[in-house]
Amino acid sequence: MITFYFITDPLIECDHEKVYYPSQDSFLLIEYFKKKINDNYFDGIELSEIENVLDLGTGTGIIAIFLQLIKSQNQNFNPRIFASDILEDAITCAKENEMLNNFNNEIIFLQSDLFKSFPDKLKSSFNIIIFNPPYLPSSEYIKNRKNKQLIDYSWDGGLKGFEILIQFLKEAKEFLNLGKEHYIYCLSSSRTIIEDLSKKIMKLGYNNEIIEKKHYFFEDIFLHRLKCLKS
Ligand SMILES: C[S@@+](CC[C@H](N)C(=O)[O-])C[C@H]1O[C@@H](n2cnc3c(N)ncnc32)[C@H](O)[C@@H]1O
Questions:
Q1: CA-wise closest residue to 166 among 190, 129, 212, 133
Q2: CA-to-CA distance for 134 and 192, rounded, in angstroms?
Q3: Is the separation of the CB atoms in 151 and 18 below 8 Å?
Q4: Burial level of 206, CB count in 10 A (0-12/13-18/19+)?
Q5: Predicted local confidence at residue 199, as pLDDT
Q6: Is the full-model pTM beyond 0.85?
Q7: Residues within 6 Å of ligand 1 by CB
Q8: CA dist., res. 169 & res. 78, Å (int)
Q9: Quick one: which H or E segment has residue 71?
Q10: Which pLDDT value is given to residue 214?
């Protein structure tokens, strides 16, 4: 069995100060996938079943490019890889990084607030959706200020820290391929009330497993794997 544990991380450069530079949370996802993708399976899902993968909130593009690197080294893994972000600068930066890693227009980029600008033809199409969302509660500073600055999109998850994630999960149902095996991977922080988040996820009809937990400086980061039980 071929695994991808020792695959090198993508080269990432970022001159755009409003774009989130990869951090421990980005690498928590990448390290998980390194352990869980092999020449036949993506975390238990047969590779041949996987047609479309989405890295939502791609930032510098690191996760989409990582998946593209695996695709280039594994002929059984042949999905279309999509990457989207609300910020134009993130899309520009991710496209530059795609080229830096010697891929030429392989990844399909979309600028969109969650799924709002996704074309209808992508409905019911994704087997895997990955979202490292903004997951911290809004600071007093942002609450008192009407306008969000562009860099705030990297971390400001709403008043409780998970409003963006919940909105994402509401919209994601329409875009998952529910007829096949599918997973959503997303992150949350102990700086939000995780029990409240879990209840909301359950109410939306998702099975929610916490599959990794890491402590960084002042918080724990949780990696969730979700499956949609009802549309
Ligand atoms: C924590 S950063 C993660 C970036 C990258 N995926 C990584 O792991 O390094 C969150 C990303 O989500 C994007 N984002 C925030 N709100 C969004 C929304 N409503 N729709 C799409 N992307 C959003 C931000 O611009 C930012 O690039």
A1: 133
A2: 12
A3: yes
A4: buried
A5: 97
A6: yes
A7: 20, 22, 26, 56-59, 62-63, 85-87, 90, 113-114, 132-134, 153-154, 164
A8: 26
A9: helix 62-73
A10: 96
Type of residue numbered 127: N
Nearest CA to ligand 1 atom 12: 57
CA of 213 to the centre of ligand 1 (A): 20
CA 57 – ligand 1 centroid, Å: 3
Residues in the chain: 231
pLDDT of residue 180: 96
Residues sharing a CB contact under 8 Å with residue 145, sequence separation 6 or more, in sequence order: none
User: Rounded to an integer, what distance in angstroms lies between the CA atom of residue 144 and that of residue 142?
Assistant: 5
Positions of the chain with pLDDT lower than 70, given as ranges:
140-147, 231
Ligand 1 pocket, mutate which of 58, 60, 164, 169 (most atoms under 8 A from CB): 58
Place of tokens 């352990």: 35
* 127: nearest Cα among 170, 59, 167, 81: 81
Q: What is the structure's pLDDT at 25? A: 97
In one letter, which amino acid is 42? F
Structure-block tokens of residue 44: 């238990």
Q: Residue 112: what pLDDT?
A: 98
What the chain holds in terms of domains, given with CATH numbers, is 24-228 (3.40.50.150)
